[in-house]
Design brief:
Blueprint: E1 15-16, E2 21-23, E3 30-32, H1 49-66, E4 75-79, H2 85-90, E5 96-101, H3 104-113, E6 118-120, H4 130-133, E7 137-142, H5 151-161, E8 167-173, H6 178-183, E9 196-197, H7 200-209, E10 213-220, H8 223-226, H9 229-238, H10 240-249, H11 256-261, E11 264-270
Parallel strand pairs: 4-5, 4-7, 5-6, 7-8
Antiparallel strand pairs: 1-2, 2-3, 3-9, 8-11, 10-11
Helix pairs in contact: 9-10
The protein binds zinc ion (ZN).
Length: about 270
């Protein structure tokens, strides 16, 4: 069903593309017209061992994007922690880690298999333990806000729980990346639980409305392809000049494929 307004910028004049999607001409958000509520009844593919391995590496690479921005931060709060790989990756660098996830099956599984502190439910600042609340911290919202019809409200709620200097990392799937451009509606991240796919412009609009300062913004892809030599060679020889320019200017934490394929967008925000 078509929403009355764009989830991100509030624009009421949405352009219907076909029976499956509408686009916001103002922020280039791609809105899914065939959505259904999130299913919390099972584990999904969260415990598939092959996927777990890559998810772990994916979380480590994501943390490398955040790491140059860390100062005296001691805590990480992962909102929508899923099967806990981001918390595991963060625990190597930050002494206090805490996760929220609304899926009770996942939370039960994390509590049984890993020594991680998690809370079942949506984010609420008052549910943070006291040691975390008083520490300088990083909040992460990775692949969460595309599930939410009021992303500004969620980001504002997180921003209110931040102290000066605290960080917020947001990562979303983009419709402007290679995966959606080549696979379209067949891409696995275009599905009924995602209300929309972002564009870099929509993500920047969300960041701008948060009242937080943008410390970094960019694109990345899932870990499995990001450091592949075959992909590197293919990209480099297809666009050698552009590749060279990217290699000279990109942050160390990102690969050539992260920048050029850009399936996911991220921002690192800091509370002034
Ligand atoms: Zn919009």
């Amino acid at each position: 069903m078509k929403p009355e307004r764009c989830y991100v910028c509030g624009n009421a004049t949405l352009e219907v593309l076909d029976s499956r999607a509408a686009r916001c001409p103002q922020c280039d958000l791609l809105i899914n017209l065939e959505t259904a509520p999130v299913d919390y009844s099972g584990l999904g593919n969260a415990t598939d061992p092959g996927k777990q391995h890559w998810r772990r590496i994916n979380s480590q690479r994501r943390l490398m994007i955040i790491k140059p921005h860390l100062r005296d931060h001691r805590a990480l709060v992962d909102i929508g922690c899923g099967s806990g790989q981001m918390l595991e990756a963060a625990a190597r660098h930050l002494s206090l880690c805490f996760g929220f996830d609304a899926n009770p099956t996942l939370i039960r599984d994390i509590r049984q298999s890993a020594n991680l502190r998690v809370e079942c439910g949506h984010f609420a600042a008052e549910r943070l333990p006291e040691d975390i609340r008083s520490a300088a911290k990083v909040f992460t919202l990775s692949h969460v806000i595309e599930h939410v019809a009021e992303p500004n409200a969620l980001v504002t709620q997180v921003a209110a729980a931040m102290r000066a200097g605290d960080l917020l990392y947001i990562e979303v799937p983009l419709h402007t990346g290679q995966a959606f451009r080549t696979q379209g509606y067949d891409w696995s991240l275009w599905y009924h639980e995602h209300l929309c796919l972002y564009s870099p412009t929509a993500l920047a609009a969300l960041a701008a409305s948060s009242g937080l300062a943008t410390a970094a913004a960019g694109t990345r892809i899932f870990a499995r392809g990001s450091h592949s030599t075959k992909t590197w060679l293919r990209l480099f020889f297809r666009q050698p000049l552009r590749s060279l320019k990217i290699l000279l200017t990109k942050p160390r934490a990102l690969s050539l494929a992260d920048v050029m394929l850009g399936d996911y967008g991220f921002v690192v925000l800091r509370k002034p």
